[in-house]
Amino acid sequence: MSATVVVGTQWGDEGKGKFTDLIAAEMSMVVRYQGGHNAGHTLVVDGETFALQLIPSGILNPHVLPLIANGVVVDPKVLISEMDMLEERGVSTEKLKISGNAHLILPYHQELDALHEEFLGENKIGTTKRGIGPAYADRSMRMGLRVQDLLDEEGFKEKLGSTLEYHNKVLTRVFDQPPLDADVIAEEYLSIYRPRLIPHIADSVSLIHEELEKGNRVLLEGAQATFLDLDHGTYPFVTSSNPVSGGACVGAGIGPKNIDRIIGVAKAYLTRVGAGPFPTELFDSIGDHLVDVGHEYGTNTGRRRRPGWVDAVMLRYASRVNSLTELAITKLDVLDDLNEIKICVAYDIDGERHEQLPYNQNLLYKATPIYETFPGWKCNISEITSRVDLPAEAENYLSFIEEQVGVPIGMVGVGPGRKQVLNFEERDTEK
Hints:
Blueprint: E1 3-8, H1 16-23, E2 29-32, E3 41-45, E4 48-52, E5 65-68, E6 73-74, H2 76-88, E7 97-99, E8 103-104, H3 107-120, H4 132-140, H5 153-174, H6 182-197, E9 201-202, H7 204-213, E10 218-221, H8 245-252, E11 259-267, E12 270-272, H9 285-294, E13 306-308, E14 310-311, H10 312-322, E15 326-330, E16 340-349, E17 352-354, E18 368-375, H11 392-405, E19 409-413, E20 421-423, H12 427-430
Parallel strand pairs: 1-10, 1-11, 2-5, 2-10, 5-7, 6-8, 7-9, 11-15, 14-16, 15-19
Antiparallel strand pairs: 3-4, 12-13, 16-17, 16-18, 19-20
């Protein structure tokens, strides 16, 4: 059997966790392949809300083996806290596996993250200051510590001392901050975190391929989204890894031919957090309405998200770079009360029409969206259980998105609950 990838097609916060949790029912393993605890998934199951940061969404399905793969950067304190939260709420984390090749976030990463943002001032990226970027930087510089280093106490201390010597020079000489103590850090990681994590450390590549060789299905779950991708996003206002579907191959240790389904998740409107260009951003009462009704505040940070209309130019680009096989639309119900709804189909830049994303990102700051406008449906759709019962206006809106992107819509979310999803594969047989 093959693998399925769930990837965000916008700037994150699309509701990937909801669909990952739903699809996990068909899977034997759910793999988180990149990112850190700067990304949050909120799941609502039987009226209970679960906010996850590192642990794969499939943890809520008892039959699923949840795995944190090599492409993830792990803060042990956060991971253990999340495990404890789940255990206290009756969700077992006994089966959780963590790749020995995943990299560790250490205290100096968080210090440097915050100091770098402060240094940038008005040009700050808008990071969560949780050490994600500096941890990935250490990985690229071949001076990072990995989860497997916890298995060798003396080796851990030696590597930590060498790396910290470098970072302390940066902290003291560049930022005029006091140095960090390697012994204090080693004591915390080896005495507190090491015994908790050792039972979960594994050869993740072998585990994934064993599942595939058994004929089981594996779900690969990304954090953040396409336009936060280090290479394909709105650089420099991006994350430090590759959330796109191709990143799943590197971050999990499988080849492209192992993937046969790529689900792109998109919100029925658009949001982003932090700085960066946003052609369809709304600064009016409609934008406020989307934020209020959609509860558009960060799962981890509480920051208010910037709202806007769906951008088909972005979605077309996301479809290309991810090789999407289908779309999954979330939060369609948030649009219930609007008189009209808009979709950006192209940009006007200096009088020239652009239907594809311009490669020169500076042009995005000058882009004026060209909209198609649709009447709203002005009714509550959150109780609808079948696509055929959607109002005609909602159906037309979704069909237009399919037409614009050239990818079929497979699922639509009409509320936060696990069961508030319409399966669009029914359309040909029911209509």
